[in-house]
Write a structure and sequence with these properties.
257 residues, 8-stranded parallel β-barrel, TIM Barrel
Length: 257
């Protein structure tokens, strides 16, 4: 059985790690400065994080330039897999991010606008490098719609259909972000995660809603997630990754300690 992964997420704006109030609702003026990305990456590396995810939340040319500098700095200091996303619209963008030190590239809004980007990226760099990040909002008891532009714009896609399409095009991993759960600290959307994990042949990463260690366990156990991603609870020091991994190990999950 493959080990379950613990993944801190770092939102980067102008070369700094920031955190908004809630998913898709924070304007740049409402962002809280969390710290230097390289120092945070080193901290999480020492705590035992399995991977790190960086998102360029401004998705601008200048923002991506800052993100590339962050990736280069972190890659020189840390030796765990790095994923980066935000504002990546072309195969050349993917190439730049990978050359800067990322192991995987996360696609979201650009993939919705141009699904062929998934296929082109997978063909050129391999499916293992392409992560499809999906921002989902519940619209009925067992139905979720895909949103773009940081959760602000509803797309025509239903979550299951879009996830399957992404895998068919070559995505090697799916990150499912719950817009409803994010920022609530009330736990992941277990039904949403399980729906995708049970139908897809690639790893599914749970994102949005973690507030306590039990939430991570439930996402892995009841949500059938392959990995769990979180930001605020790690940045604020409410949960220490080493302690979380020990807790999950005692619960019987296959964890790298």
């Amino acid at each position: 059985m493959l080990a379950k992964r613990i993944i801190p997420c770092l939102d980067v704006h102008a070369g700094r790690v920031t955190r908004g109030k809630q998913f898709g609702k924070a304007e740049l003026g409402e962002l809280t400065d969390v710290g230097d990305p390289t120092l945070l990456a080193l901290k999480y590396n020492e705590e035992g994080a399995d991977e790190l995810v960086f998102y360029d939340i401004t998705a601008s040319y200048e923002g991506r330039g800052a993100l590339l500098d962050v990736l280069r700095s972190v890659a020189r200091s840390c030796f765990i897999p790095l994923t980066a996303g935000g504002g990546i619209k072309t195969v050349e963008d993917i190439r730049e991010v990978l050359l800067a030190g990322a192991d995987k590239v996360s696609l979201n809004t650009a993939a919705l606008a141009n699904p062929a980007l998934i296929e082109e990226g997978a063909r050129k760099f391999g499916s293992q490098c392409i992560v499809l990040s999906i921002d989902a909002k519940r619209v009925a008891e067992n139905s979720w719609k895909v949103f773009s532009h940081g959760g602000r714009k509803e797309s025509a896609w239903e979550v299951r259909a879009w996830a399957m399409k992404g895998v068919e095009l070559g995505a090697g991993e799916i990150v499912i972000n719950s817009i409803d759960a994010d920022g609530t600290k009330e736990g992941y959307d277990l039904k949403l995660i399980r729906v995708l994990a049970d139908m897809l042949p690639v790893p599914v990463v749970a994102s949005g809603g973690a507030g306590k260690m039990e939430d991570f366990a439930l996402a892995l156990e009841q949500g059938h997630a392959d990995a769990v991603l979180a930001a605020g609870v790690f940045h604020r020091g409410e949960i220490h990754i080493g302690q979380l991994k020990s807790y999950l190990k005692k619960r019987g999950f296959p964890i790298r300690v």
